[in-house]
Amino acid sequence: MPKSYNEICQSAKYKLTGHGDRRIDALMECFEHMDPSMEADIYGTGGIINDFEKDIACFLGKENAVFFPSGTMAQQIALRIWCDAKGLKNVAYHPLCHLEIHEKDGMKILHHLEPTLLGTKDRLFNMEDLKSVNKPIACLLVELPQREIGGQLPPWEELISISEFCKNGGIKLHLDGARLFEILPYYNKSAADICSLFDSVYISFYKGLGGIAGAMLAGRTEFIESAKVWKRRHGGDLISLYPYIVSAKHSMNKRIGNMGKYWQHALTAAERLNKIEGVSTVPEVPVCNMFHAYFDTTKENLESIFADIIEKYNLAIVRNIREIDNSICKSELSFGDSFELIPQEILDKAFEQLESEFIKLVEK
Amino acid sequence: MPKSYNEICQSAKYKLTGHGDRRIDALMECFEHMDPSMEADIYGTGGIINDFEKDIACFLGKENAVFFPSGTMAQQIALRIWCDAKGLKNVAYHPLCHLEIHEKDGMKILHHLEPTLLGTKDRLFNMEDLKSVNKPIACLLVELPQREIGGQLPPWEELISISEFCKNGGIKLHLDGARLFEILPYYNKSAADICSLFDSVYISFYKGLGGIAGAMLAGRTEFIESAKVWKRRHGGDLISLYPYIVSAKHSMNKRIGNMGKYWQHALTAAERLNKIEGVSTVPEVPVCNMFHAYFDTTKENLESIFADIIEKYNLAIVRNIREIDNSICKSELSFGDSFELIPQEILDKAFEQLESEFIKLVEK
Fold it and tell me: How does pLDDT run across A10-26, given as a tens digit for each residue?
C-alpha cells in the first residue's frame, strides 16, 4: 500500500511545526528525575496532584484549581456550574468554539445547555456582537487565541471591555485558555493578569507545552469544589492521574519559557509563505505560535508539491491538509521545538521550491 | 501530629491485603521493556490502543471493545446506549451498585436514567426480585462479584437463568466486571464463557490486576461505535491514553494467572478470622480474592488492637476501618501480591495476638 501523505510527513527528518513525534518515550523522559518512591494520587488526593493544583492556581492568580483528564470535561463542567448558579441554560461563545464543533454536542446532550453563537465563523466576535445578544445568558466563553480562525486575539482593551460588560451584566466569564501560555508574549502580560479578567479558566498541558494530556480548571474555591463533584459524575475522577500530572509539570518546566521563540518561528514562517503568490496566512501576522495557511490549489496538487519537497529536503512543511473547495486548501501550523532543528539551508531551499511550484501553477 | 491509623498501616513492612503501596514507580516499571520509539495513540486511534482493544475483545469473546479512562464513564455510557435503544429511562441494579452510591448520581444527573433497585442491600438479588419488577426496564446491570456485600456471587445456574430471562424479555444485560478476572477460578469458566451471557461488559485494570487506572467496555461493534461517541461527549477521548494502556497490559500479563492464588489467600485469612469470637467475614467462605470482615468492638478499640499488632509484628491486617454502629466495625479485604511476602511466623503470631485481644474483649 502506498504511504498516505501524512505518513510521508511522519517519515520526514525535519518538521516545520510541532514538538516532534508523539512517542511513548515522552512519558519515560518525564519520569527520569522523579523519586520512584513517591506516592500515587488517589481519587484527587495526595501531594502529587494537590501540590500541582496549588502551584497552577497560584500561577493563574486564582484561589484554587483542579486537574482534569481533558479540557472537554473541564469546560462543560465550568459552563454547567455557572448556568446552574444563575438558573439559566444559555451560554454564549464563538461559532467555532471547541464545545460547538469538536465534542459531539456533549454540552447540549449531557448538560442541556444552549449556546448563543456570537458573530460569524470567519472573525473574532466583538463588543457589538455581545451587546446584540437579546436573551439572558449565564456565561460567556472566550477562547484565547481563537484557534479555528488561525489563532487570532482581540486587543487587550477589548478584553477589558468584555470583562467589564460581563461583570456589570452578571454574566460569568470563562476563559478557554487551551493556548494561554502561547499568547503571553503577545499581550506581554502574566497569566495571572489575563486570568484576572475571568471568573474561571481552563488551561491545557499538551498544546504548546507538549505534555501527554490533561487540563486544569481554576477559579474560586467554591467553584472548584463543585467542579470536583462534576468531575466524579463525568467519570474523570480517576484513581490516579499522576502519569499526566508528572508529564504536565515536566513539560511546563521545559517549555514555558519558549513561547516567545515559538511565536517568532510562526512569524518567520508566515512571512515566507505570504511572499508566495497563491499562498496566504490567517492571521497575516501571527500573534502567537500558530496560524492557518491557505493554498490556491487542489489537495492532490498540494500534497504532491509538499511530498516532493520532503523527498528532496527531508522537510515536512504542512501536515493535515484540508480541501475547502476544489481550488483552495487549508492547513493549521503550530510551532514548537521542531522548527529550530531545521538547518537554515534546507529551510531556504524548501521554501524556494514551494515558491517555484506555485509560480508554475499560476502560469498554467 | 500523631499518625492516623491508615498512616500507621502504610508504614508497616507487611500488609495482609493489596499489591503493595501505590507508588509512581509502578508506572516506570511498566515502561521498562517498551520500545521507546513506539507511537502514542491519538484520540482513540493508533496501534497501541487499537491492538489492545482487539486483544481484550477477543479475550472477552466480544466483537469489539473500547478503552476508557474510568469505569464510571464506561458504565454510564453503556446503560445510556441501551436505554436510548429501547426508548426507556429505566435500568435495574443492586441497591449498592457503584452507579448508585459512588458516582455522585452522574447517571441520574447527566443521563436522566432512573434505577430500579433489586432486592435488599444485604444480599444478592435473585430471580424472584427480578421477576417482581413491575415496570419496563431497558437494561439490567449485574455486578460480579457484588463488591459492597463482600464480593458474593450467584450460582452459575442462576446467572444463566438471569441471562435467559433478559433475553426473553428484551432486556439488555450489562456486566459490571470490575473484578471479572478475580472470579474466574470460582466459576471455573473462561472470561468469554461468562461474558457470553451478557450484551455488554465493563472490566477494570486496577482492582485485582493492579494497573494504574483504566477500563474497557466490550460488546458488539455497533454498541462500541456508539460508546466512542459518548466517550468524546464525556471528555474521555483523551489525545493519549497510553500511560494507562501500557500499565493495563503489563499488569494483566503479570497478574492474570494469580487469581486462584489470591482467592486462596482470602480463604486462608477468612478462615483464621472466623475462628476468633467477635470476628466474622461476609461471605464466610470467600468466592474470590475479597471479603468483608466484621469486628464486634468500637473503631477506637479496633484501631488500637491493630496498631499494637503493627508495632509488634510490622503487619497491617486491615486498613480503612468503618464503624457501622457503636459496637461493630467493618473493613474490606482484597488480596493480592502482598500476602505471600509475609513470613509464616509473623502471620501466625499476629493472628494469635488478634485472637487473644478479642478474648480479653469478650471477657470484659
Answer: 999 999 999 999 999 99
Give me A353's grid cell.
Answer: 521550491
Q: CA Rg, chain A, in Å?
A: 21
DSSP B36: T
Contacts with A22 (C-beta within 8 Å, 6 or more apart), sequence order: B39, B40, B42, B240
Radius of gyration of chain B (CA): 21
Domain boundaries, chain B: 5-21+258-363, 41-239
Q: How far is B49 from chain A (nearest CA, A)?
A: 12
- B334 interaction partners in chain A (CB closer than 8 Å): none
Average pLDDT over residues A89-104: 98
Cβ pair A91, A83 in contact under 8 A = yes
The closest alpha carbon to B144, from B211, B199, B194, belongs to: B194
pLDDT in tens, B98-151: 999 999 999 999 999 999 999 999 999 999 999 999 999 999 999 999 999 999
Predicted local confidence at residue A325, as pLDDT: 84
B5-21+258-363 to CATH, choices 3.40.630.30, 3.40.50.2300, 3.40.50.11540, 3.90.1150.10 = 3.90.1150.10
Using CA atoms, how far residue B256 sits from A116, B56, B191, B243, in Å, is 51, 13, 11, 19
| Interchain pair B235, A237: CB under 8 A | no
Q: Which of A81, A89, A39, A44 is nearest to A232 (CA)?
A: A44
Cα-Cα-Cα-Cα dihedral sign, residues A223, A226, A232, A233:
negative
ipTM greater than 0.95, yes or no?
A: yes
Closest Cα in chain B to A214: B238
Q: What CATH topology corresponds to B41-239?
A: Aspartate Aminotransferase; domain 2 (3.40.640)
Q: Are A238 and B105 inside 8 Å of each other by CB?
A: no
Question: Cα–Cα distance between B273 and B281 in angstroms, integer?
Answer: 7
Q: Report CA-CA distances (Å) from B50 to A1, A246, B54, B55, B210.
A: 20, 25, 6, 9, 22
Whether pLDDT at A364 is above 80: no
With CA atoms as reference, report the closest residue to A137 among A83, A75, A78: A83
pTM to 2 decimals? 0.97
What residue has cell string 480562525? A149
Mutation target vs B (from A9, A234, A249; most B CBs, 10 A cutoff): A234
